[in-house]
Amino acid sequence: MTPAPGLGAGARRPARRLSLDYLTVSGASPIEHIEAAAAAGFDSVGLRLLAPTDLRLEHEVVGDRLLIRAIAAACRATGITPLDAEVFFLSPGVDMDRLRAAADAAAEIGASSLLAVCMDPDRQRALHGFAALCDVAASGGMTVALEFMRWSPVPTIEAAVAFIADAGRANAAVCIDALHLARSGGDPSALPALPPGTLVQLCDALAAAPPLEQLLAEARTDRRYPGEGGLPLDRLLAALPPETPVSVEVPHRDHAGRTVAERARLAGDALRSWLDRQAGVEA
């Protein structure tokens, strides 16, 4: 893989698998995303195959056989391994056939996990849909990681762990977004037992939370690179098993106008620099 900018060919790389999440390079096509991640020294990507229900997907993947094959080829050519595919929204009236088609595409591309969000207030219906998605993912050798958000019916990490336990699927996991953990009052030093396949998305933000009605806008457009804000990321990292991959999910307002490659490079440099500082503190 191409060494990260600012790192010599013999430089020590972090032991953790590092992934570039879609929101960091929002608007990128899947091929642009993969190539930018490789050039910036990442190991993996989190690809967007489905848009949140209130947004439009700029680059349609599901159902495009040529594009799916091209994405898989780009991963092979660059050495990038897809970590997760998003966003599998479980909402009232969700089109399960479309979710299945997206899951099939994720498996063909080589993703390890599907990232799901529950937006259905009917818990039993949501559990049924989540369990069905887990069954589809299992056939492709993937886990399904449930992401909690303060404004969703699964607002905390404790609620997410309880939800996947009730779903009763061995390939059910949790996605810990550092911003959502902080904004939901979660304590990174007291995480519940986490299942295999847990996803972790790192970003920073102001320590003080905005009003509840502004949390969604903050999450989508106003995050900061690790070390630029006041979130207790050091305690979150310390609570994770060393083999846990980490993604950088930073839609940074100050860099929104930069190219995909520039945003990937800035995020990669910031993440590695922060991880190196943490390694120095631990030593």
Chain-wise SSE layout:
Elements (H helix, E strand, L loop, with lengths): L17 E4 L8 H10 L4 E5 L16 H14 L2 E10 L5 H14 L3 E6 L4 H17 L3 E5 L9 H11 L4 E6 H6 L15 E4 L12 H7 L11 H7 L6 E3 L11 H23 L1
Parallel strand pairs: 1-2, 1-8, 2-3, 3-4, 4-5, 5-6, 6-7, 7-8
Helix pairs in contact: 1-2, 1-9, 3-4, 4-5
Could you provide a short overview of the structure?
Helix content is 39%, strand content 15%.
Provide an overview of this structure.
The protein has 283 residues and is of the alpha/beta class. It has one domain (18-282): Divalent-metal-dependent TIM barrel enzymes (TIM Barrel). Helices cover 39% and strands 15% of the residues. The protein is built from nine helices and eight strands. The chain has helices spanning 30-39, 65-78, 96-109, 123-139, 157-167, 178-183, 215-221, 233-239, 260-282, and strands at residues 18-21, 44-48, 81-90, 113-118, 143-147, 172-177, 199-202, 246-248. An eight-stranded parallel barrel has the order 1-2-3-4-5-6-7-8, surrounded by five helices. Helix 3 links the parallel strand 3 (81-90) and strand 4. Helix 1 runs parallel beside helix 2, helix 1 crosses helix 9 (260-282) and helix 3 runs parallel beside helix 4 (123-139). The longest helix is centred in the last third of the chain and has 23 residues, at 260-282. It is globular, with a radius of gyration of 18 Å. The two termini are 27 Å apart. Residues 1-14 have low confidence and may be disordered.
